[in-house]
Amino acid sequence: MSLPKRTVITTGDGSKTLHMEDWNEQYHSKHGAIAEAYHVFIKSGLEHLNKQNIDILEIGFGTGLNALITFSEAQKNRLQINYVGVEAYPVPLEQAIEMDYATKIEGKGLHEVFQKMHKIEWNNPIEINTEFRLTKREQKFQEIKDQNCFDLIYFDAFGYRVQPELWSKEIFEKMYQSLKDGGVLVTYAAKGVVRRTMQEVGFAVERLPGPPGKREMLRATK
Q1: What total number of domains does the chain contain?
Q2: What whole-number distance in Å separates Cα of residue 125 and Cα of residue 136?
Q3: What CATH number has the domain bearing residue 195?
Q4: Are strands 132-138 and 80-87 parallel, antiparallel or unpaired?
Q5: Is residue 4 domain-resident?
Q6: Cα 203 to Cα 188: distance, rounded to the nearest angstrom
Q7: Spans of the chain below 70 pLDDT
Q8: Given this model, what pLDDT does residue 1 score?
Q9: What is the per-residue pLDDT across 108-136, written as a single tens digit (0 to 9) for each?
Q10: What is the pLDDT of residue 114?
Q11: From CA 178, how far away is CA 34, in angstroms rounded?
Q12: Quick one: which of 27, 38, 31 has its CA closest to 61?
């Protein structure tokens, strides 16, 4: 499978994302890419853990927005982050740079960091700085085999409407196995079928207030 053509659009908070017209699907919320990322993955995930040393798995590295925001938070709060981003269909460097996220996120040297994140080779751990190690894995989600490795999963796959297979029992079993005991998965999704599938594989699932444009989101704990 190949993805539909990706074009750059501006979202409700002034930040950019990629839009796939054939699917009528975006990489981030059209109501605000950065606002959604902060609400779902930082506020409801990273801050919820309240830990200094954190292993993170991102399902859908995409434009690199979640990785950059997490790097910024690590700088501000002196966190030690090991970040693994899985992506089956990498975004071209030129499009990633066009996102220009570094101008809208607080932190020093983020332009250089963002470019480095996209330029580093795939499938090898790279020290972005002494507090943040990044591994980009070019891999389909169905191929994930990690066991008890992560404290936190950012589940940022394309929506259930366009790719229901990414929200299946098979995938969430892999997520459950990838987490350490007490580990947490956060996602922008709130569909009942998604919540029930998470519960079926063993997660304790909470409904939380959603980001701009969404009533709810989900947080699941192993």
Answers
A1: 1
A2: 7
A3: 3.40.50.150
A4: parallel
A5: no
A6: 16
A7: 1-2
A8: 58
A9: 899 999 999 999 999 999 999 999 999 99
A10: 96
A11: 26
A12: 27
- Sheet with 80-87, strands from edge to edge, namely 126-129, 132-138, 80-87, 53-59, 150-155, 179-187, 216-221, 204-209
**Rounded to the nearest 10 degrees, how much is the dihedral formed by the CA atoms of 157, 163, 167, 170?**
-110
Question: What does the pLDDT read at residue 2?
Answer: 65
Residue 125 lies in a domain: yes
Quick check: helix, strand or coil at residue 168? coil
Domain that holds residue 168: 33-221
Alpha helices in 84-191 (DSSP H): 93-98, 110-119, 169-178
Assess if residue 67 is contained within a domain. Answer: yes
Going from the C-alpha of 9 to that of each of 103, 157, 160, 218, the distances in angstroms are 16, 19, 21, 26
**Dihedral of CA 140/100/108/75: which sign?**
negative
DSSP-assigned letters across all residues of 30-50 = TT-HHHHHIIIIIIIIIHHH-
Residue 14 lies in a domain: no
Helix, strand, coil percent values for the chain (each to nearest 5): 35, 30, 35
Question: Among candidates 111, 118, 76, 70, which has minimal Cα distance to 94?
Answer: 118
